[in-house]
Amino acid sequence: MKWAGGKGRLTGHITALLPARIGTYYEPFLGSGAVFLALAETGRFERAVLSDTNVEVINLYRVLQRSVGALIEALAALPYSEEHYYQVRAQDPARLRPVDRAARLVYLNRTCFNGLYRENASGEFNVPFGRYVNPKICNPERLRAAARAFRGAQLHAADFAEGCAGATAGDAVYFDPPYAPVDGRRQSFRQYQAAGFDDSQQERLATLFRQLEQRCVHAVLSNSDTPRVRELYAGYELHPLQVGRPINRHAAGRGAVGELLIVNRRSARARRT
Ligand SMILES: C[S@@+](CC[C@H](N)C(=O)[O-])C[C@H]1O[C@@H](n2cnc3c(N)ncnc32)[C@H](O)[C@@H]1O
Questions:
Q1: Best residue among 192, 205, 220, 257 to mutate for probing ligand 1, ranked by most atoms within 8 Å of CB
Q2: According to the CATH classification, is domain 62-137 in 1.10.1020.10?
């Protein structure tokens, strides 16, 4: 799926900072699962525990595990038109069968404007129709490949702290939270869901990141490169990256943006002091 903040183009940088052999791999801000899928391809972990607060994505991955054939059939039956898009968008996902609920998410993701997931204050998906030439709504090969990758993974619709509560020595976690705002501006994209991710959540996450170091759990975290993020993770190993950001309704926000990959081991400078 397309996902705001999706790490499809950065998986090489991120997986290079994770251990070669991982007991249980935790990814508690799963989104489109780009990093998990890259790791699964190379068999880097024994088990995976994956979570996100977005119940729609978790339902989709559960359906992939259990009934990928039914999902492919349901998707193949959905036509691409503006009228049909708004009918599907108007459905209450909680009232649909899991397979139709998963098909609704993939359909909206492939046909909505910019392929982003955003909810209004009432928790309803509110992205308008997107104009594409022949969008690929149903891709059976990719769905079957994803179903194989998710086989055996534990999936939870949960907050990040609960999502990795079971991590112990030898395990690894990759955190990809909604990013801290750049330059004191409103965050360029933060409406994944009605409930936002404010500074108190960033602090709660930084505390958990430090606790995992004490539990000998290897953690890697992505965030924007801002003074606030550098303050929250002072003393840890920081890897700055310049990243193009395609999803931003302000043209100025679409250029290269500074990001950090942070590893929960002490930087060489912090070890010397
Ligand atoms: C930057 S995106 C992750 C993108 C993902 N790495 C990818 O490649 O698609 C952040 C995700 O965090 C989820 N999220 C927001 N608040 C959360 C929370 N408190 N606990 C867990 N997940 C949360 C959002 O639903 C969203 O999917």
A1: 192
A2: yes
